[in-house]
Specification:
Number of helices: 8
CATH class: Alpha Beta
Distance between the termini: 35 Å
Radius of gyration: 18 Å
CATH superfamily: Zn peptidases
Largest sheet: 6 strands, mixed
Number of domains: 1
CATH topology: Aminopeptidase
Order of helices and strands: HHHEEEHEHEEHEHEH
Strand content: 15-25%
């Protein structure tokens, strides 16, 4: 889905963004200590979240300009309109690495529009056009099902949206499903110099520089990516710690308080290119990335392969991630 980022570029982005986000981070870090084990949250329905993941996969690979992409768009927009106060589809034109013209569509759903204190939750809803990490080279140009890499994060946020409708918050919540996140240059191509890796995360790049509401901001953001794998392992991603350490530490404190410390592992790992980079860098919103990290390498064994399907998805993992996110936002009430 994304390549490991070069350290020099990492330091550039982190340094620049910290300058602009230091005030936000200071505000967040001053939150009083909370016993997260005692925070009451609505019940997260893992069966529903699993169904939402499967429903996306049923359309087929949600690749740019495809019928599956269009059908899934209609499904997601219709679902979010039933939950949120407003839903906006942000269309934009772009090109893939090979010059193919594509139309991207970010989906933005907002709750409690009048609130000035806001939290941004996000995931990407497209799936990769090429299974370029598949062991079978003959499948490298086959689209990826994208159950974990894409649909899992969206499924968790769909269940959170359903909860927000029935149990509203005082603060405002915005949920964004970014498009064209996973269409970076495939492994078989000769890579030209592209240190900033702008062929990835196109939807978040566009939104961060063309916000759906002028001057929109949020106190902080949480990005969910590959959050449904059966052997879940989330670590403190390097760039998230550089951009928004107070938020990342809060999330890991919540996970520990709820008994999930073996899944939310308290160790810092290498930075990656993901949507949170551009939200931090361009939108100046401190955002962290909860993302699968496999100690054996890559992200998880089915990453960018034709086997990234529902067999890789765990209801329990979806529930754990959902409960941690719900605790984070409901603890602020």
């Amino acid at each position: 889905m994304k390549q490991i980022f070069g350290m020099s570029i990492l330091l550039f982005f982190v340094t620049i963004t910290i300058i602009f986000t230091s005030c936000k981070k200071e505000k967040i870090s001053q939150i009083e200590s909370i016993d997260y084990s005692k925070v009451e949250i609505p019940s997260f329905n893992a069966d529903s979240a699993y169904y939402y993941v499967a429903k996306q996969c049923d359309f087929g690979s949600r690749t740019p300009n495809s019928q599956a992409h269009n059908l899934c768009l209609e499904y997601l927009v219709d679902f979010m309109k039933q939950q949120a106060d407003t839903v906006y589809v942000q269309k934009f034109d772009s090109k893939l690495y090979n010059g193919t013209k594509v139309t991207g569509k970010n989906i933005i759903a907002s709750f409690n529009l009048e609130a000035t204190d806001r939290v941004l939750l996000a995931a990407h809803w497209d799936s990769r056009l090429w299974a370029d990490n598949d062991k079978d080279a003959s499948l490298h140009k086959t689209p990826v099902p994208g159950a974990n890499d894409g649909a899992s994060g969206v499924g968790v946020l769909m269940e959170i949206a359903r909860i927000l409708k029935s149990k509203p918050l005082k603060q405002g919540i915005d949920i964004i499903f970014f498009d064209l996140e996973d269409q970076g240059i495939p492994e078989w191509e000769t890579k030209e110099e592209n240190n900033q890796q702008t062929d990835w995360c196109i939807g978040s790049q566009y939104w961060s520089q063309n916000k759906h509401i002028p001057f929109y901001t949020a106190n902080y953001g949480i990005l969910l990516d590959m959050v449904g794998y059966k052997a879940a392992r989330f670590t403190k991603e390097y760039q998230s710690m550089g951009y928004a350490a107070s938020i990342m530490n809060k999330i890991w404190d919540i996970a520990k308080a709820k008994g999930y410390e073996k899944i939310f592992v308290d160790v810092q790992t290498s930075g990656i290119m993901d949507d949170h980079i551009w939200v931090n860098h361009h939108a100046k919103i401190p955002m962290i990335d909860i993302v699968q990290n496999d100690p054996e390498g890559n992200f998880f064994p089915h990453w960018h392969t034709t086997t990234d399907d529902m067999d890789a998805i765990s209801k329990e993992t979806l529930k754990i991630v959902g409960e941690v996110c719900l605790t984070a936002i409901y603890s602020a009430q």
